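Hi support team,

I'm filing this because I wasn't sure whether my run with zinc ion finished correctly. The job status page said complete, but I'd like someone to confirm that the output block is well-formed before I use it downstream. Pasting the exact inputs I used:
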Amino acid sequence: MRIRAAVLHSPGTPVVVEDVELEPPRAREVLVRVAAAGVCHSDVHLADGSLGPGRWPIVLGHEGAGVVEAVGGEVAHVGRGDHVAFCFVPACGSCPACRAGRSNLCEPAGACSVAGTLLDGSSRLSLPDGTVLQHALMTACFAEHVVVDAAAVVPLPGDLPLWQAALLGCGVVTGIGAVRNAARVRIGETVCVIGCGGVGLQVVAGARLAGAARIVAVDRDVVNLELALRRGATHTVDARLGDVAAVVRGLTAGGVDHAFEVVGRAETIRLAWDVLRPGATAIVVGLAPQGVEVALPAIEFLSEKGIKGCYYGSANVAAELPHLVELVADGRLELADVVSHVTPLEGVEEALGRLRRGEGARTVLVVDASLAGAPARG
Ligand SMILES: [Zn+2]
Ligand SMILES: [Zn+2]
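And here is everything the job wrote out:
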């Protein structure tokens, strides 16, 4: 079928919404009509070529939601008409990582993600001239339709608005999973969140749900800091002013129990280390461009400080996403408040530009207004 999709032809050139060919789903795949998609910093990294060579031409987008239109013969957990959110690590279920319960680190899915294919190692996308297109993170949902692996769709209740559900599969799972699975924040602990964009704001919400006593939000955008306060941050620190590490340590009696870096830069990873109290751990959620290295004062390992990576919330997405949906349904987790911009698919390049400039929190691309249920706003 011919669809409209946001194509990156090569890094440094604008993303173009144009006609592409989409093949039908194979036996273990699903065709989804996309309702809405969130624009994430990983899309910027792909668009800028900062995740390494060979990753284009590509259809971008890995956070989204839609309605199933067709399923392959071996797909049983969803059917035509079901609402679904995308999971961008469709775990194989049988590799060493999957068998160890770490499905976010699924080895075949990781390899296919870098190659820009689905799990069988091939693409369903091409340009009208036959040029094969890669799928961004096995999803490619800045498009009217996607074909994805069966494990890449997680069923949703029919009453959750899809323009909000679009955020679940990356920002929400990643942010709340970092608190729940990587840090395991406990009641009364102190937390610092460095970078309060679309994912960092979910870390703040997760810390509040976990019962953190002090939640210090750090960002250089005052609008993001205000949003963080509304989501449960107890203190905010403007990252443009003064010695941020000293200010955070001063607010938290010498340092926090958990620092979350949600930017992906060497300076902010170092900042996450510098705000820790002895014995505490920094969790790096932000995705850094290839080649970035971080220096740490090694003598401070004496104080048993730790630093740890976190990919995709260290989560079993298929199992955990339904819990998050229940929190939304109960009014305990707000989704819409992190959405700073709502635009049609054609607004993708502007949305990437805002992320590059650090403006706003999340843009939601409304791909199909009749399905997405989004309010009309800029
Ligand atoms: Zn993302
Ligand atoms: Zn696996």
